[in-house]
Amino acid sequence: MGADRPQGDRVPVLTAAALQRAEAEVLAARLRVVAEPTRLMLLSMIHAAPGGEASVGDLAAPIGLTQPTVSYHLRALTEAGLVARDRRGTWVFYSLVPGALQQVRDLLG
Amino acid sequence: MGADRPQGDRVPVLTAAALQRAEAEVLAARLRVVAEPTRLMLLSMIHAAPGGEASVGDLAAPIGLTQPTVSYHLRALTEAGLVARDRRGTWVFYSLVPGALQQVRDLLG
């Protein structure tokens, strides 16, 4: 633990620009959903896919998981608002929700 | 779960650009450390601080926590490689480690 320093007028600067607790709680909940290796790999694969979208079948083979397992993780990511689901005819495509974790992204440098 | 689609030559594209499991595991471990509201607020406050650095004393008052509690969270963030600790004389300053979560940032759009 470090020594302290007089705070003076720096405090308002810190509070004004920083995340408020309610926002931080929403972001933390999203991050808990993402903080899992398979889900990170799926997000990365969707991000890298042509057109930024992929089906369960596109994802299952390269990641070496069954389609039900991939669907389970995609459902969690969709419910957390991180991934969007678009049914077109008989195919369902998944894409990243733009800006879903923008605040986290911004503060991660 | 969505209908499948022929994968054809899209598979190599997906695998080449995507996170590999070993990288995903490291990132997931870092995200688990970050997926906590107080820690997100501290990261945000450090990011917004003048010069991109802050002491425990700078952070404790605006976030409404004791200095030992703030120190505990900063230690976890430091051990995870997300925050750097710099002692100068009797003061200790914390700053974000640039690029510590670059891969996550990149894939969060």
UniProtKB/TrEMBL annotation, chains A, B:
<dbReference type="Pfam" id="PF12840">
    <property type="entry name" value="HTH_20"/>
</dbReference>
<keyword id="KW-0804">Transcription</keyword>
<dbReference type="InterPro" id="IPR036390">
    <property type="entry name" value="WH_DNA-bd_sf"/>
</dbReference>
<dbReference type="InterPro" id="IPR001845">
    <property type="entry name" value="HTH_ArsR_DNA-bd_dom"/>
</dbReference>
<dbReference type="InterPro" id="IPR051081">
    <property type="entry name" value="HTH_MetalResp_TranReg"/>
</dbReference>
<feature type="domain" description="HTH arsR-type">
    <location>
        <begin position="19"/>
        <end position="109"/>
    </location>
</feature>
<dbReference type="InterPro" id="IPR036388">
    <property type="entry name" value="WH-like_DNA-bd_sf"/>
</dbReference>
<protein>
    <submittedName>
        <fullName>Transcriptional regulator</fullName>
    </submittedName>
</protein>
<keyword id="KW-0805">Transcription regulation</keyword>
<dbReference type="InterPro" id="IPR011991">
    <property type="entry name" value="ArsR-like_HTH"/>
</dbReference>
<keyword id="KW-0238">DNA-binding</keyword>
